[in-house]
Amino acid sequence: MEINRNDTILVTGGKGFLGHFVCGTLADRGYTKVIPLEGTKRGIDLTNAFFTDKVFRQCQPDVVLHLAARVGGIGANKDNPGRFFYDNMYMGMNVIETARKLSVKKLVLASTVCSYPKYTEVPFKEEDIWNGYPEETNAPYGVAKKALMEMLQAYHKQYGLMGVTLVPVNMYGPRDNFDPQSSHVIPALILKVQEAIDNGDSEIVAWGTGEASREFLYVEDCAEGIVSAMENYNSPEPVNLGTGQEIKIKDLVVLIASLMGYSGKIVFDASKPDGQPRRCLDITKAREEFGFSASTEFSAGLSKTIEWFKNDICCSI
Question: Which of 53, 49, 87, 51 is nearest to 68 (CA)?
Answer without folding.
Answer: 87
